[in-house]
Design brief:
CATH class of the domain at 35-135 and 207-239 and 260-474: Alpha Beta
Bound molecules: alpha-D-glucopyranose
CATH topology of the domain at 35-135 and 207-239 and 260-474: TIM Barrel
Number of strands: 21
CATH superfamily of the domain at 35-135 and 207-239 and 260-474: Glycosidases
Oligomer: single chain
Structural class: alpha/beta
Helix content: 25-40%
């Protein structure tokens, strides 16, 4: 009897445990051993620009909560919210002054909890942005650190004497212009900042820093967060000898000499830190996404870890740099797909020109947007969308320096216009300020909102939004698209990128015309024993007849093949 009771207690305990961990469970979700994030579609939200619930011109958490139904309906499984923590907003939240709270402009922790519980009801997971490399200069750790050379937190940041009077410790240049060192007159030493001077680098060589940062992640996991997007991971460590970086020819937008950053980026110690963060993430089955800017596939591979013990989802940001060309994408995808890790595809984010404009030729932007959607939402891997991409939002940079909000745009103008253009308010409807706010938003709404907005596009079956919805719906219910292998076809085709996704006896053919002229491709389907071609989703004038697929300019054709 006692044994039975113990068993019952054990079973109910286990049941409770598994329910409590449902949000972040690491359990495989399918026979292939795939986990939830491998089947999920992620969606990046820039909270300042998503939805303004209190009409102060800035988006907020309540605004996000009010749009969860929209996201669910679209087919989003996880939202990554860029930093919403207390911050002086020098870098719009990427300068965090308290890692364990919400900035009042975005709401409160109670608002966060409401958002998390509403998201959970809809089976949408929440990913926060963890700024691991630096804090704000207003963080209490830094305020103490700069107070004296013997302060408790002195060694939490990177302090050094200058080389000589008036000279910084070395030649390192900040990503955002000028020397990466700032003299603090009080203690006469310089501190290091890879980004703005208001973003001092944390000293990851100090075990206390490491532990404190690990604890921050635990704190949020306990609050129901399903993982983190780790910001700027490649800059966590600096050469202890602070050797000068070699200078190469040319200048950046701010007039600084270009450097090969061999002594302050991508140091091998980065991987120790990532393993540590992963170890903590594994305590709750959380997922880690990396802002991994890499020069090639072998660098990208390293971020997964030699024993798959670092990032589950290092973003393939090289994907955002490719030319719109079938052979270029074909070559890149094959390399990423063959790299051994689970690919993570991104086409736009808050730091780069939206793919709508990057690839758009001014005439066929909508068609090209559909091709890009059909591409990265049907590849083997996890896609991360960027808000507004699904409605064809246009990058709209300021036209005069006085209007620039992003500091790098002010320093770098006119060469570097900053990142305001890709951070404009979400376009919800045709009403004033695109339905984002009742007051003038922090950045102007692009004029395109009258035609490109959620309300109007939802009614139009041919809109970019309707295409995204159909595609996401297809992706969620098609086993081959979720779990299938990737097999490229027609290697030498200069115009059409085509591939199969194969899962057991299910085969999906994807054909994308990346050119502005009509194309016909003979896939010799009957020769390969396929007698049926069922159109799953295509653009209006693309279709299959017998073995031949006809594609309109920038046409998309996705079909289920059967024998
Ligand atoms: C990352 C962010 C970017 C920010 C920088 C400094 O690159 O994506 O927006 O400015 O880190 O934190």
């Amino acid at each position: 009897m006692r044994n039975r009771t113990t068993l019952l207690v054990l079973i109910s305990g286990l049941l409770f445990w598994s329910l409590a961990n449902a949000q972040t469970s690491n359990k495989a979700v399918d026979a292939e051993g795939h986990q939830w994030w491998q089947h999920a579609v992620f969606y990046e939200i820039y909270p300042r620009s998503f939805e303004d619930s209190n009409n102060d011109g800035l988006g907020d958490l309540k605004g996000i909560t009010s749009k969860l139904d929209y996201l669910k309906d679209l087919g989003v499984d996880a939202i990554w919210i860029t930093p919403c923590f207390p911050s002086p907003q020098v870098d719009f939240g990427y300068d965090v002054s308290d890692y364990e709270n919400i900035d009042p402009m975005y709401g409160t922790l109670a608002d966060f909890d409401t958002m998390a519980s509403e998201a959970r009801k809809r089976n949408i997971r929440i990913i926060l942005d963890f700024v691991v490399n630096h804090s704000s200069d207003q963080h209490k750790w830094f305020i103490d650190s700069k107070s004296s050379k013997t302060a408790k937190y002195r060694d939490w940041y990177v302090w050094r004497d200058g080389k000589a009077k008036g000279q910084p410790p070395n030649n390192w240049v900040s990503e955002f212009g000028g020397s990466a060192w700032k003299l603090d007159p009080k203690t006469g030493q310089y501190y290091y900042h890879f980004f703005y001077a208001e973003q001092p680098d944390l000293n990851w060589r100090n075990p206390a820093v490491k532990d404190a940062m690990f604890d921050v992640t635990r704190w949020w996991y306990k609050r129901g967060v399903a993982g983190f997007r780790l910001d700027a991971v490649d800059t966590l460590f600096e050469d202890p000898k602070l050797r000068d970086n070699p200078t190469v020819s040319g200048k950046n937008a701010y007039g600084d000499p270009l450097q090969e950053r061999i002594y302050n980026t991508k140091l091998p110690e980065v991987h120790d830190a990532l393993r540590g963060l992963r170890h903590v993430a594994d305590e709750t089955g959380a997922v880690l996404i990396g802002e991994t800017w890499t020069k090639d596939i072998s660098e990208l591979k390293q971020y997964y870890g030699d024993h798959s013990d670092e990032l589950q989802m290092p973003m393939d940001l090289m994907f955002t740099k490719l030319k719109f060309s079938a052979p270029v994408f074909r070559e890149h995808i094959a390399a990423v797909d063959g790299a051994g890790g689970w690919p993570v595809y991104v086409v736009s984010n808050h730091d780069i020109v939206r793919s709508y404009d990057r690839y758009g030729d001014g005439q066929h932007n909508d068609q090209i947007a559909r091709v890009m959607a059909a591409l990265y939402l049907t590849l083997r891997g996890t896609p991360i969308m960027y808000y507004g991409e699904e409605i064809g939002m246009k990058t709209t940079p300021p036209t005069q320096k006085e209007d620039v909000k992003d500091p790098i745009g002010r320093t770098g103008w006119p060469k570097e216009k900053g990142r305001d253009g890709e951070r404009t308010p979400m376009q919800w409807d045709e009403s004033q300020n695109a339905g984002f706010s009742k007051t003038s938003p922090w950045l102007p709404v692009p004029p395109t909102y009258k035609t490109y907005n959620v309300a109007d596009e939802a009614k139009d079956p041919n809109s970019v939004l309707s295409f995204y919805k159909k595609l996401l719906n297809l992706r969620h219910r098609n086993q081959a698209l979720l779990d299938g292998t990737y097999t490229p076809l027609n290697d030498s085709d200069q115009n059409v990128l085509s591939y199969l996704r194969i899962y057991k006896d299910q085969v999906v053919l994807v054909a994308l015309n990346m050119s502005g002229s009509p194309q016909k491709v003979n896939f010799e389907l009957s020769h390969h024993g396929f007698s049926s071609v069922k159109n799953l989703l295509s653009t209006p004038k693309s279709s299959a007849k017998g073995d031949v697929v006809t594609l309109e300019p920038y046409g998309v054709f996705i079909a289920q093949l059967a024998k």
